[in-house]
Amino acid sequence: MDNKIEDLLKSRIIDMTGNELVSVIIYAASKSDLTKVGSSLPALVYGIDGLARLLNVSTATAMRMKKSGIFDPAISQIERTVVIDVQKALLLMHNNYINHKDDDEQ
């Protein structure tokens, strides 16, 4: 481990600069096993209610998000049956958040 990171891990967050805090967060994220996070989630959810439960939002919000097209690559729909690939949906949501965040900064 880098000496600078070791020193930062021993210091208080309030004493860190923004760049130092980002360095610590990136270091921690690189050391964590992200596959464990997704293992407790189901592979598929069904319907708008399933999407709403997955995202912890109301069914109206889930419907609005579905209609916006964010989740189109993750959704299979035959007539009235909606099947959503959870991993794809979460990845698309994350990418959408990052893209909008970058737009706001400019």
Radius of gyration over C-alpha positions, nearest whole angstrom: 19 Å
Provide the residue-averaged pLDDT. 82
**Overall morphology:** elongated
Kindly state the number of beta strands: 3
Describe what this molecule looks like in 3D.
The two termini are 35 Å apart. This protein has 6 helices and 3 strands, in the order αααβααββα. The chain folds into 2 domains: 3-32; 38-105, Arc Repressor Mutant, subunit A. The chain has 106 residues and is mainly alpha-helical. The model has no long low-confidence stretch (mean pLDDT 82). The protein has a 3-stranded antiparallel β-sheet.
What would a concise description of this structure say?
This protein has helices at residues 3-10, 18-31, 35-38, 47-55, 59-68, 86-105, and strands spanning 44-46, 75-78, 81-85. The chain is mainly alpha-helical and 106 residues long.
Keywords:
106 residues; Arc Repressor Mutant, subunit A; 2 domains; three-stranded antiparallel β-sheet; mainly alpha; elongated
Write the layout of secondary structure elements.
Elements: H1 3-10, H2 18-31, H3 35-38, E1 44-46, H4 47-55, H5 59-68, E2 75-78, E3 81-85, H6 86-105
